[in-house]
Design goal:
Blueprint: E1 3-13, E2 21-31, E3 35-39, H1 46-54, E4 61-66, E5 69-70, E6 81-84, H2 96-106, H3 111-124, H4 140-152, E7 158-162, H5 170-187, E8 190-195, H6 198-204, E9 207-212, E10 215-221, H7 222-227, H8 232-237, E11 242-248, E12 252-254, E13 257-260, E14 273-277, E15 283-286, E16 296-309, E17 312-319, E18 322-329, E19 340-345, E20 350-354, E21 357-358
Parallel strand pairs: 3-8, 3-9, 6-7, 7-8
Antiparallel strand pairs: 1-2, 1-4, 4-5, 9-10, 11-12, 11-14, 12-13, 13-16, 14-20, 15-19, 16-17, 16-19, 17-18, 20-21
Length: 361
């Protein structure tokens, strides 16, 4: 598949040569016509990547290509790239149609042609009939759609999104995510969408890149990143809160106490390991009660707290020095703080890491 955007060992530092790198040798390919989301915490370098693609920041090293052309040393106006920012940056004194057409008019497109293309872009983001309103007469979600239309009207090779929904309430974000997906399906632009919101990243991305401290920790399909985090950092960042250290003495033991059952995947391993489990993977049992056949079992725990959230119950557990979290449907069993408890889980739902990297068999 043809690359729409390509990074080759791109680095970036602000300041002199003694300043630390904020982007560290990134290799990245975004296939043409796809939307890649970059997920990571504040300060990991994801917005810096966008700014370098747009030409707003110069690379310290490496090469950036758009549609096969080396744009590393080209200015922003020479790259045919549009960027949608967190702040909508609409001109408050201009009507919506004028805001959308602004980029066309300053590049010399005739007034009538600019207006025609602006109306088409507004229809594309679901805002026909809003042409003569001022930005102050629009909701936050409508203003964000105007900002997207203003970028789309330029017919760019690449669309960049810098957390454009972060200032909106939760319900509106859901609606606009669906709208952005529909726009991308219809127009098929090449895009990168930066966010710290996991749901947003998995909803929107053809592929998801997880960044950490200036590097891409994992790049894969949304389902692969979610189901098989490549490193313990990605697992932790995605909210897999249960982490249990394992070690081999006379047999396998864990930081949470003796681990019983079929240890299959552990039998050929040496050295310390880390076991990650999603809260939904843990099944709770009263102390001494029977567990599921074939499951691995931790006993000797107690319930610390029980939290209700909609149709689920989150149970905080303590096993030795290890805190675990179980999420189960309401009605699957009632436990109270202080109750002794056993947990079991299917080894198929466990993620096992050695020296921070996923063991894949």
């Amino acid at each position: 598949m043809t690359a729409g955007i390509e990074f080759r060992q791109v680095t970036k530092r602000y300041g002199d040569a003694k300043s630390p790198l904020v982007v560290k040798g990134v290799d990245l390919v975004v296939p043409k016509g796809t939307l890649t989301t970059i997920l990571g915490p504040s300060g990991c370098g994801k917005t810096t990547l966008l700014r370098m693609i747009a030409g707003l920041d110069a690379c310290t090293g490496g090469t950036i290509l758009i549609d096969g052309q080396d744009v590393t040393h080209l200015g922003p106006a020479e790259r045919n790239v549009s960027m949608v920012f967190q702040s909508y940056a609409l001109f408050p004194h201009m009507k919506v149609i004028e805001n959308v057409a602004y980029g066309l008019t300053v590049t010399g497109v005739g007034k009538d042609e600019a207006a025609r293309r602006a109306r088409a872009a507004m229809e594309g983001v679901g805002l026909p009939g809003y042409e003569d309103r001022l930005p102050s007469e629009l909701s936050g979600g409508q203003q964000q759609r105007v900002a997207v239309a203003r970028s789309l009207v330029l017919e760019p090779s690449v669309m960049l999104f810098d957390e454009p929904l972060s200032n909106l309430d939760a319900l509106l974000r859901v609606e606009l995510r669906a709208h952005l997906r529909a726009i991308h399906r219809e127009l098929g632009f090449t895009g990168i969408y930066v966010t710290h919101d996991q749901i947003e990243a998995f909803n929107l991305g053809t592929r998801v890149a997880v960044m950490r401290a200036g590097r891409i920790e994992q790049l894969d399909s949304a389902s692969a990143v979610y189901e098989r985090p490549a490193t313990d950092y990605v697992a932790s960042f995605l909210g897999i809160r249960n982490s249990i250290g394992l070690r081999f003495d006379d047999g396998w033991t864990s930081d949470a106490g003796p681990l019983k059952g079929n240890l299959g995947m552990l039998e050929r391993r040496k050295g310390p390991l880390q076991l990650f489990l999603r809260p939904q993977a843990l099944q709770l049992h009263a102390a001494g009660a029977a567990t599921e056949p074939g499951h691995l079992v931790l006993s000797g725990g107690r319930v610390v707290d029980v939290l209700y959230s909609g149709g689920e119950v989150d149970t905080v557990l303590q096993f030795g020095a290890v805190s675990l979290f179980a999420t189960n449907p309401i009605g699957s069993g009632q436990f109270n703080p202080g109750d002794p408890v056993t947990v079991s889980f299917d080894s198929k739902n466990a993620l096992l890491y050695h020296e921070g990297k996923l063991i894949r068999d």
